[in-house]
Write a structure and sequence with these properties.
alpha/beta; globular; homodimer; about 350 residues
Chain lengths: ~350, ~350
């Protein structure tokens, strides 16, 4: 009689206690409690129209998503929000890094909420994908405003192209307006093409400057000064006041060299301090005057119609280009053709024709 | 015996003298003598390279033609001229009507030919199709220059789009250069987008102004002042001299508000009189200094490469748009979609998507 157990193979396992599950059921229940079911477009719209910030944030996340499923849902939400949007003033604010945009927007935003306004602060910064949000990335810069229940701050959407980022911001404006925000501030850094994009979605365009900075710091891109409805010289405090006033005179003189605006509005220059709050309320008064004038002469409404059309055409043109340049055949030929053109081996027009033939033949 | 001739029918014709031919052989021979056979691309290229103005003019006519047969021929001529082109300085000149562009170009052009240069004067004016050449249409405005055998003046090509007009002018530059013209002046009116086009084909960009004119007259489009490598205040003669000098100071101050140029060149301001010729030679000295600087720092050559690439991409983008907007389906839907977008019935992005789907499905 043998008491020995038979081990048929080295792989035999003794029965024992089962190993603990990797994910504990308690943790699963805990996580599931927080993982809410994705609300339907209808639910989102209802939430937004009721002024629910969570619904607004979720809808914006949909708009910013690259998932094509989300895109369809986002379009549904936006189209349902459209009839409830548009009742706002949209203020574009630009200025190079260093002029104190964040502190200005915080002071200005707080002033607006103190007047009973609901303020949404958005941003257009195509570079934020790389820099991870050089603007508005750090909400701590607007400590006061972020705590204000009548303010909503959303960092720039990320995206590969300015067109994409701008589209997302513009759709976010619609959502914010439907959610009851009556003052939309769209921030951008004054160094790229994003100003044109912001200018094309704002009613009023404000250029923030400081005095006494070298040319590099003031170095804004071409045409931006001419877009401005107001130039505000920030940091007019302490020793800076005199210099700021001088800068104001100089910019005022420069503005007069530009042609009259279609709006009938004569751009203003002023100084302010985001720290002492001197001049902040005057900025809003200026904007209110602008609104009065342009609503009376109908420019305000005409411009919004034009902007809508502009964005439709821009989107089409952008898509046409994307489709062309992402075409495998073009992708393959573009670099060598560019080189040939640069070196005058073929005329730019003959080269373009060559590529277009290949594209349309496909 | 009957002497009567038989008339078998009423339609019988008596033999007689033949009627005179409608076109006289003498006239035909005379006309044929003047109707030269359309020269082949090869003959045109030979003529151009030999400095033959007739060949140059005929080649430009080919470039400007809308006949697709001519287009192929034009491309052949241009590609053969390319290796012989590019050895020139291309000067863009802009200014609103009334600043005296024609008299300035005449005085400036005469100065250049007196220095032994060969000067071609071209124009970009998309409006000329309608206005039949508001600029350069009337060569009598440049009476002196037109008689100068070292000068070649060609009015703006006509065309429906700025892109088309610009393309033709740019190809004409190549032909002129291959024909031995070492100084190309490209004129435009400072009121539209054509400045950007001219800026993109010029090495040096000159903005012509006058003093003491109201804002309307000075009213140039956004960004043009920032493009300028030199601002020249014309009509600085007689009672105007003091005012012109004041304007010079003011523009100089304004120029300093703009960011530094990539070329390393600091834009200049000066005054001149196209009538007394005061200050005209100084304009050329400025350009010569610009050339020295930018050829040394390589900007001149880099910019030309960039410009070539720019024109290739511009042509592609323009064609993509033309193809889309001329598509029968889009043509049919565009107006109603635009209206819906303007009235906020559909978001600009959803509308764009709708049209694009129709286009790409086709």
């Amino acid at each position: 009689m043998s008491n020995k157990k038979q081990h048929p193979s080295a792989l035999h396992e003794k029965p024992g206690i089962s190993p603990p599950e990797i994910i504990s059921p308690i943790a699963v229940a805990h996580i599931k409690k927080f993982r809410k079911i994705q609300p339907s477009p209808k639910e989102l719209v209802e939430g937004i129209l009721a002024g629910n910030i969570t619904a607004l944030s979720r809808a914006i996340t949909l708009v910013e998503s690259t998932n094509s499923d989300h895109l369809a849902k986002a379009n549904e939400v936006i189209d349902a929000c459209l009839p409830h949007a548009n009742k706002s003033i949209r203020i574009g604010i630009t200025g190079v890094p260093g002029v104190g945009k964040s502190t200005f927007i915080e002071a200005f935003g707080k002033h607006l909420t103190s007047l009973g306004k609901k303020v949404a602060v958005l941003a257009v910064d195509p570079s934020s994908t790389i820099s991870h949000g050089s603007i508005l990335g750090d909400k701590t810069r607007m400590e006061e405003l972020v705590k204000d229940e009548n303010a909503f701050i959303r960092p720039s959407a990320s995206g590969e192209t300015l067109g994409g980022v701008a589209r997302k911001t513009r759709e976010t404006i619609t959502l914010c307006e439907a959610c009851g925000f009556d003052t939309i501030i769209i921030e951008t850094v004054g160094v790229g093409q994003s100003e044109t994009a912001v200018h094309s979605m704002a009613d009023f365009f404000l250029l923030l400057k400081i005095s006494g900075a070298g040319d590099e710091l003031q170095g804004i891109k071409r045409g931006i000064m001419e877009m401005a409805d107001a130039i505000v010289i920030n940091k007019a405090d302490g020793d800076n006041i005199r210099k700021a006033n001088l800068a104001k005179v100089e910019f005022n003189r420069a503005l007069h060299l530009f042609p009259a605006k279609k709006s009938g509005w004569i751009p203003t220059t002023s100084t302010c301090s985001a720290i002492t709050h001197e001049g902040i309320s005057a900025v809003w008064k200026t904007i209110a005057q602008f609104l009065e004038l342009t609503k009376e002469n109908n420019y305000f409404f005409e411009k919004r119609k034009e902007q809508n059309q502009y964005w439709m055409l821009e989107t089409i043109n952008e898509q046409l280009k994307l489709n062309f340049y992402n075409h495998p055949k073009i992708h393959q030929l573009l670099d060598s053709t560019k080189k040939a053109v640069q070196n005058d081996e073929i005329s730019p027009f003959a080269a373009a024709q060559l590529l277009l033939e290949k594209y349309f033949k496909f």
